[in-house]
Design a protein that fits this description.
heterodimer, A: alpha+beta, Ubiquitin-like (UB roll), Alpha-Beta Plaits, 6-stranded antiparallel sheet, 25 helices, elongated, B: alpha/beta, Glycerol-3-phosphate (1)-acyltransferase, 9-stranded mixed sheet, 19 strands
């Protein structure tokens, strides 16, 4: 069976590789391995080696060297923490250890599923640790439960973790049995499958596994055929699988019908790239067709009236014969494809599957030649046979595997939770739920049109590394971009720090493929803008894993900016700052990023300065004196904005000049480059603070909203007030509340709140936290803020969803869900409140 | 009697603490701030270092000075909208508009001069020491209030009984170093020479008495109040009753200013607004004679500095105590659901009404009663029920105990400082020696006409008020005024008692009807009818005026007749007056205007042979006007806009009127037979 490669074949293979190179396709070695816990924390944020620790002294320090404050003592921060939360730093509250393998519940997964998954060659894992790693996002509730209340988390882990696709590619699909999910006793297991892609194995030369898509269901099949073998085998397989006569199997390649006698070779079929599309033919192959132009015994006389024709066409049909032959004959006669025919009887549309009998044409009295004339009206109407996704974008195995998985889950009543970077803060990936993490492969890079097509499991930092090494960038940098994935961005409507230049994910997204239990939702073409009805990208965006799995994504890219420069602004009060931001937004001269911190956060940021850091304590003192004495700033009111400029050297200079000009009107002044840079560095570090906080009985969480400009200050003020009052109500004595404006738009901005408190004396700190946040969210909504700017709805905010989109809006979404996923395979239970009730009650 | 005595002993009413504090259950928090000063001289005291507690400190912006608040009004969206409208009306001359607005703002706007505040404090402290025995402040609740300040605008809503109210409120704030509140004062104060500007500098802002006609003024004033609430850091003070109550009881609240105050909250500009009901109770009003005369029909004299000096000139007498009782802040968050949205948000009228009514009922609960008011009630009962102007001291003492326990049952503060009931009675008489006096073993009401008065204060003879029994109407009115604080809280129980006495069942609808009928006179309980009923019922049960049977409440004939008499006396003039008026209305055939009706009613009342000692009360125009509004409210009269007669005309609803008449007369006749019975006993 093994034959040596011919020279020609080698040439072909080389060309194929060259083509891949030209496309810019690449398989990336991601930062985050399949065994996530090797690199990132299982019970907290970020990398294992980066965290805050308390050294004897006491002294808080940050470990690791991934961030600029790594390996430094932070006396200011130590003092700040002790002062703000009144904690006893010598008393820690350590996290429970990672449970041993035997502690996890046995995966409850149908054998059939495992078999099928094994057959397709996906990798999977049933190990407890892998499953645990993927049962949560980054909400306070998730992390708190993992650290202190693990027994609660463990029953809720997925049963299996599956990584569709071949080597290097990972899709983590968490699957839970649907029934379990509904009864709120969620059991999940992790299913991890790795397949070694035996790259240049000679054996593959002769026998190939090809992709055949059954277009009616978008189901993918993988028959193996020899290159020279007639495709008869495929036809038979299809006919067996779908239980239709072989003659009715229609297989097309490049939209041309394939005959069973064709072979892959004769078709010029490229195994790596091409797909066959199989469907149920509308008429049997000619051999099977019976003559219908001649009258015969027991035949019915069917008279067909054709629009715009005077003479009827006469045919003779067997009562039990279906109408396919009739259709075919009509098509031939009228010279149109049979798929474009519309046949009506008694005003009702007739399908090719019908028989005269099923249409009640038999009547018993009309079995001879003098049968009454049956008026069958036929006229033309364009109907387009859906041909499935465009093959130029049809990705390799991953996508197919996802399709397969979704099919299986649909069949077996399982729940899939797509999982990306696990950075969700809306409770969206908390089981039961769904985010998406397929493989980190790049299919192509289109330098001319500035587009990139990649798989959705690609982690942000990997994508950027790849692109920047080639002089490009997507420019999408959410604070979680070290860990979050492209698919996750799309599924949650993410927003990046530099959206002013590059746009939010909805601006960046050109096209996305979403696999649903009822097929693949995919927009055709890559044109820059289309007016083709409602844009279904927006069904994918923000679907939060409730409708399907995003497998492939095409994003816009930009050339890497020549200059990247930081800056900062100082304002006497927060309201001056907001007014200035408003003016900058009005004049549309925002730099790539502009963020305004309030006084509390400014002071918090100051505390994170390492001693004698950038400025040294002497210049610190000088600065303080300058601010309070010369500028007459109240150090307890002033606030700071950080800026990030990107562009050519000249344009950055212009931007700076313009901004500093505007700032003057609002009593502000530039505060230096270093402060700006530190501000952005802190963005990534700040996420690590929660973990150490939990060790000292401090819970911390952030939440965000977007709000029109005119309401911004009121909203900030009122929310702070409400939180203060709620803390008193819940007997919370030491707390920290702070906010910042992180994005500006023409009409409003995004406000981020940080809230932390010492839970000393609280029976249920998470319950307290959630109740306070809910009160804050109510206040946000009352003050004209939105439910979320970019965190999404998830389960945490599902209870407000309907009030935000109207009742009809919610119904619309429900129906969309019903069409795409009637069996609730994607039972993530995000957005819609009723799904979340039972789990919420348990929290 | 014995039971009552032991009750009183249990409550240990009389002992007095050395440092001005009272060793008495709920009274403990009351502190006489006049005995509190640690400074050797008043001059040193007023010039001490002051650190005022602000009401609203927003952490995101600097507090606005009075000038900035005016600027804020000029920069407001409202101002832009007004300008646009003007431009649409082809007024090219915006400067004119701006001038007008600036003028209005200059008229309204408060300023703040710490020097003036200190000077005024010095003057006030001197006068106070001369005229008042004490200013008692509920220090605990005031300190709690002071501590909680800073998070949102605080609005002080005191009762309004005297000119002294806002000066004394400012004084109390000065003592406790709370930022002097911006107080809404009537524009007529501005016409007072010097005083107007002094008030302005001590943070008064001025409001025209009427501004229905001037749309621009209304808008600008509203915006000014908005800015004051949302941008300022001072507490705000306004009088929800709109004007001084001359009668010693609360007036029906006004809603306009309250709505203005609430607007910034509805717009989301402030996180919350806290309304603090404050009761300022006087043993004796500075303006008592003016009030009496006004009530009897003399128009209110124009506010003038001369008038004020005149008031000061009579201040060399003792005016007893003034009591400040600060209630718990009412958070608007608990009362109003916000939906920040449209630019012209207005509070829902129902919300405003229920908040206003809540404040009024808080006012009456917060009242602090001195012995004088209680003695006045007892004397009033004596005059009304027994037609006697004298009574023996032992009876006064026993009734006083009874009234004290009744007040305590209702949760009111009774502040007795003398340690002995007899002393209290003497002290009460000393507060107003022209009203009552203790002669030998008898307490005498000096209401007989022959009683000589200081010539300056001799009442002008008011148009034909019948006085019956040769009593001086001025004195009668004063007696009623001073007993009214007690009447305020006893009115609902008294009504209920009357209803129970006449009716066997279904008392609640009649009780509610009567409460509504008398809402203008006693605007309490209308916000929470059920609760009002419950409290009254419990009170009557507790005081043994009624007893519970399986069928409902039963009138207890023999028990506690003294209290029953007092209760009956309290409602008698109102029942009688309203009955007469509705009887008169029953005779009216055509629709008629308000003004005409008012005069006719007054004339009718005066010629009534029935006029008793109390007729001066219900012959006043205010009384009749209230009665007519109430009757309209309950449907005895219908308001109509007619084309031929300008203004509003009224037509009579006969069915409703006769219902009212029969109800009132049945209550009244029941009372008469009752009191006749009592006399025999």
């Amino acid at each position: 069976m093994t034959t040596p490669k011919s020279g020609e074949e080698k040439q072909e293979e080389y060309e194929a590789r060259l083509e891949q190179r030209l496309l810019g396709a690449a398989k990336l070695q991601g930062v985050i391995p399949k065994k996530r816990s090797e690199i990132v924390k299982w019970n907290g944020w970020g990398y294992n080696d980066s965290k805050f620790i308390v050294k004897p002294g006491p002294m808080v320090a940050f470990t690791g060297n991934r961030y600029p404050i790594g390996e430094m003592d932070l006396p200011g921060f130590t003092e700040w923490v002790i002062h703000t939360f009144d904690i006893d730093i010598s008393r820690t509250n350590p996290s429970v250890p990672l449970p041993p393998p035997e502690a996890y519940p046995k995966p409850n997964i149908p054998e059939e599923f495992v078999e099928e998954v094994e057959k397709t060659g996906m990798s999977f894992s049933l190990e407890g640790e892998d499953r645990l790693m993927r049962c949560h996002g980054q909400t306070l509730h998730d992390i708190y439960t993992l650290r202190f209340d693990l027994e609660k988390s463990i029953p809720r882990i997925p049963d299996i973790v599956v990584w569709p696709g071949k080597l290097f590619s990972r899709v983590t699909n968490q699957l839970v049995s649907f029934k379990d999910c509904m009864s709120s006793q969620i059991k999940m297991s992790d299913f991890d499958i790795t397949i070694e892609l035996s790259d240049d194995d000679d054996d593959l030369e002769t026998e190939e596994t090809i992709r055949v898509i059954w277009v009616h269901t978008m189901k993918m099949h993988h028959p193996s055929v020899y290159v020279n073998q007639p495709l008869e085998k495929v036809f038979e397989e299809m006919s067996k699988m779908y239980n239709i006569p072989r003659e009715f199997v229609d297989i097309r390649y490049n939209d041309e019908p394939v005959s069973p006698s064709d072979s892959l070779e004769s078709l010029g079929f490229r195994v790596a790239l091409d797909t066959l599309y199989a469907s149920k033919a509308l008429q049997a192959a000619p051999s099977a067709s019976e003559s219908i132009s001649e009258p015969g015994k027991n035949k019915l006389h069917v008279k067909c009236l054709v629009k715009d024709r005077n003479r009827p066409l006469n045919y003779y049909l067997n009562p039990r014969q279906n109408l396919i032959a009739l259709f075919e004959a009509l098509a031939k006669e009228l010279e149109v494809p049979s798929s474009q025919l519309k046949v009506k009887f008694d005003g009702d549309l007739v399908s090719a599957k019908d028989t005269p009998q099923s249409l009640d044409l038999d009547g018993g009295e009309c079995f001879d030649d003098s049968a009454p004339i049956l008026p069958v009206k036929i006229y033309f109407e364009f109907s387009y046979l859906h041909n499935g996704p465009e093959d130029e974008l049809d990705g390799p195995e991953t996508h197919d595997h996802v399709v397969k998985l979704v099919e299986l889950a649909d069949k077996l009543g399982l729940v899939i939770i797509p999982y990306g970077g696990g950075t969700s803060v809306s409770g969206a990936v908390t089981c039961p739920d769904n985010e998406l993490r397929p493989i980190n492969q790049i299919f192509w890079l289109d330098r001319k049109n500035l587009l990139i097509c990649c798989q959705c499991g690609l982690v942000g930092q990997d994508l950027e590394r790849y692109l920047q090494s080639r002089g490009f960038t997507v420019g999408h940098e959410p604070d979680s971009y070290e860990f979050s994935t492209v698919g996750g961005w799309v599924a949650t409507r993410a927003s990046g720090m530099k959206k002013n230049v590059y746009g939010n994910i909805e601006d960046l997204l050109v096209s996305a493929k979403m696999v649903t239990p009822r097929g693949v939702l995919h927009k055709k073409g890559l044109s820059p803008r289309q007016s083709v009805g409602p844009d279904f990208n927006h069904v994918v965006l923000g679907s939060e894993g409730t409708l399907g799995v995003v497998t492939e994504v095409v994003l816009k890219i930009r050339p890497v900016a020549e200059v990247r420069k930081y800056g900062s602004l100082v304002f006497p009060t927060f309201s001056d700052g907001v007014n200035c931001m408003r003016e900058i937004a009005k004049q549309r001269c925002q730099p790539a990023s502009i963020r305004l911190m309030d006084n509390e956060q400014f002071r918090f940021g100051q505390s994170l300065k390492p001693p004698g850091g950038y400025l040294g304590s002497l210049s610190e003192a000088f600065k303080k004196a300058y601010l309070s004495n010369v500028k007459r700033f109240d150090l307890n009111m002033m606030c700071v904005a950080t800026l990030l400029f990107e562009g050519t050297k000249k344009s950055v200079e212009q931007q700076e000049a313009k901004i500093y000009e505007i700032v003057k009107q609002f009593d502000g002044f530039p505060g230096g480059e270093k402060n700006g840079e530190r501000g952005y560095m802190l963005t990534f570090v700040i996420a690590y603070i929660r973990d150490i906080g939990l060790e000292f009985n401090v819970v911390a969480e952030s939440f965000e909203t977007s709000v029109p400009w005119a309401r911004t200050l009121n909203l900030c003020r009122n929310v702070k007030y409400v939180i203060g009052k709620e803390c008193i109500k819940h007997n919370v004595k030491k707390f920290f509340i702070s906010h910042r404006v992180t994005q500006t738009y023409d009409s409003g901005c995004c406000v981020y709140f940080y809230f932390a408190f010492n839970w000393e004396g609280q029976d249920d700190p998470i319950g307290t936290y959630e109740s306070i946040e809910a009160a804050a969210r109510d206040e946000i909504l009352v003050n004209g803020g939105s439910l979320s700017h970019h965190h999404g709805v998830g389960k945490l905010r599902a209870r407000w969803y309907r009030s935000q989109v109207s009742e009809l809006g919610e119904t619309l979404f429900r129906h969309a869900k019903h069409v795409l996923d009637p069996n609730n395979v994607f039972g993530a239970a995000n957005l819609l409140d009723d799904n979340v009730l039972h789990t919420k009650a348990k929290l | 009697m014995d039971i009552l005595d032991s009750l009183m002993d249990e409550k240990r009413v009389y002992s007095r603490h050395q440092s001005g504090r009272l060793e008495l259950d709920e009274m403990e928090e009351f502190v006489n701030i006049l005995t509190k000063s640690e400074y050797s001289s008043d001059v040193l005291w007023v010039s001490r270092y002051l650190q005022f507690t602000k009401s609203f400190i927003a952490s995101d912006r600097k507090a606005q000075s009075h000038r900035e608040i005016i600027q804020d009004v000029l920069n407001s969206d409202l101002m832009k909208a007004i300008e646009e409208l003007e431009l649409e009306a082809n007024t090219t001359d915006l400067a004119h508009l701006h001038d007008g607005v600036r003028k209005i703002l200059a008229e309204i706007g408060y300023t703040r001069s710490l020097a003036t505040i200190r000077w005024l404090a010095l003057v006030v402290v001197k006068i106070i020491h001369k005229t008042l025995d004490g200013i008692y402040v509920n220090e605990a609740s005031l300190m709690k209030l002071k501590e909680s300040m800073g998070d949102s605008p605080y609005v002080l809503v005191p009762t309004h009984r005297s000119y002294g109210d806002f000066i004394l409120m400012a004084f109390v704030c000065f003592v406790y170093e709370i930022e002097i509140p911006c107080v809404a004062a009537g524009l007529d104060f501005l016409s007072m020479w010097v005083m107007g500007e002094v008030l302005r500098k001590t943070k008064a802002f001025f409001i025209r008495r009427t501004f229905q006609d001037d749309k621009l003024y209304k808008l600008i004033f509203g915006q000014y109040v908005s800015s004051l609430v949302s941008q300022g850091d001072s507490p705000i003070e306004f009088f929800i009753e709109g004007t001084r109550s001359r009668t010693g009881k609360s007036l029906k609240p006004k809603y306009g200013f309250l709505s203005m105050i609430l607007k910034p909250f509805l717009d989301g500009e402030v996180p919350d607004i806290k309304l603090i009901p404050v009761s300022i109770s006087y043993d004796r009003f500075l303006e008592e004679w003016l009030f009496a005369r006004e009530l009897l029909g003399t128009p209110k004299p124009k506010e003038s500095t001369k008038g004020l000096l005149k008031v000061f000139s009579i201040l060399n007498q003792s005016y007893g105590n003034v009591y400040f009782n600060f209630g718990n802040p009412i958070s608007m968050r608990d009362w109003i659901t916000r939906e920040v949205g449209s630019p012209l948000t207005r509070p829902i009228t129902q919300d405003v009404k229920s908040i206003a009514s809540l404040i009024i009922s808080n006012h009456s609960k917060l009242q602090v009663l001195g012995a004088f008011h209680l003695v006045a009630v007892i004397m009033y009962d004596n005059v009304v029920t027994h037609n006697a102007c004298e009574m023996p001291i032992p009876i006064v003492t026993s009734r006083l105990k009874l009234v004290v326990s009744a007040m305590r049952t209702l949760g009111l503060n009774v502040l007795l400082t003398k340690g002995d009931l007899l002393k209290e009675i003497r002290y009460a008489c000393a507060i107003n020696p022209e009203l009552m006096v203790v002669e030998g073993e008898r307490l005498k009401f000096l209401g007989k006409n022959q009683q000589s008065l200081p010539p300056a204060l001799k009442p002008q003879v008011t148009a034909g008020v019948e006085t019956g029994k040769d009593l001086d109407p001025n004195k009668i009115v004063l007696l009623v005024v001073y007993s009214n604080p007690v009447a305020m809280v006893l009115f609902s129980p008294a009504l209920l008692l009357a209803v129970i006495a006449t009716k066997e069942s279904a008392v609640i609808p009649e009780f509610n009807f009567l409460c509504e009928l008398f809402e203008h006179e006693f605007p309490i309980g209308s916000c929470d009818k059920e609760n009002n009923f419950k409290i009254s019922e419990e009170f009557l049960l507790e005081m043994d005026c009624v007893f519970r049977t399986p069928d409902g409440m039963k009138y207890a004939q023999s028990s506690n007749y003294q209290l029953i008499n007092i209760l009956n006396a309290i409602i008698r003039p109102y029942l009688a007056g309203y009955l007469l008026i509705s009887q008169y209305l029953a005779q009216v055939t055509d629709s008629t205007t308000h003004k005409k009706l008012l005069v006719e009613c007054q004339n009718y009342l005066m010629i009534q042979p029935d006029s008793c000692a109390l007729s001066p009360i219900y012959c006043s125009k205010t009384f009749i006007a209230y009665c007519l509004s109430s009757l309209t409210q309950v449907g005895c009269m219908n308001k109509q806009m007619s084309c031929d007669v300008p203004g509003v005309t009224y037509s009579i609803n006969r069915k409703r009127t006769s219902y009212t008449t029969s109800l009132l007369s049945s209550l009244l006749s029941q009372q008469r037979t009752e009191s006749a019975l009592k006399h025999k006993l």
